[in-house]
Amino acid sequence: MKKYIAEFIGTLTLVTLGCGTAMLVGCKADHGSGYLLTALAFGLVIVGMAYCVGNISGCHINPAVSLGVLMNKGMSVKDFIGYVISQCLGALAGAGLLAAIFGLGKVTDMTGAFGSNALTGVGGSVFAGLLVEIVLTFIFVLVILGVTSKNAGHGSFGGLVIGFTLVLVHILGIGLTGTSVNPARSFGPAVVAAISGNTAALSCLWVFIVGPLVGAALAALVHKFLESSKA
After folding, report:
1. Please, which residues have CB within 8 angstroms of residue 194's CB and are 6 or more apart in sequence?
2. Does the chain have fewer CB atoms within 10 Å around its N or its C terminus?
3. Which residues, other chains included, contact 131 with Cβ-Cβ below 8 Å and sequence gap of 6+?
């Protein structure tokens, strides 16, 4: 149960600080400072949580990461289900905190909708949105699997590598889809935005669930192949 609580807390923190920063400073591509601050917020949360709950749950705080770990036989199906439920509940709680902090009326755009993801940066193209999320999640999860591999030898620097990789994928992805690479992170804000009256985020939510999961699955397969191909 402690690892599920750790995943709940970690995902709550990610949504509260990451999406909250996006709401506060704006994350449109033409607002450079806000764009970078949002990317840093998401990445730095991962760094902090990695050293806070990493020794308890592994600090997945992301169903896509949990899927990659599951496919690499790093966790049981029972734990996978428990992790995903905890992550989604944590994301809902985090978005709920943002609703309390910012007020339910602030739902006018992507960042105002509690950090919900959208396809506005790719012209509404579902294909482009899926491609962006698959590619970015593939990179992110492949790095995680490599850093946490028994053969990695990164010691205590793993959390930094993972966190700054998340910053990197956000720098590209924010202007395109808002960067999900995390189904729970997209689920919580979209649901709370819908409750507040903005249902637009729900219309494309499936893209930010399917895309990251496909990217994670591909990363797990590639990592397995690379590990098995070592001389």
Report:
1. 201, 202
2. C
3. 211
Q: Rounded to whole angstroms, how far apart are CA atoms 159 and 167?
A: 12
DSSP assigned state of 73: T
- Which of 65, 84, 93, 46 lies closest to 188, judged by CA? 93
Q: How far apart are CA 162 and CA 143, in angstroms?
A: 7
**Concatenated DSSP letters of 10-63:** HHHHHIIIIIHHHHHH---TT-HHHHHHHHHHHHHHHHHHHHHTHHHH----SH
Q: What is the pLDDT of residues 2-54, one digit of tens each?
A: 999 999 999 999 999 999 999 888 776 665 678 899 999 999 999 999 999 88
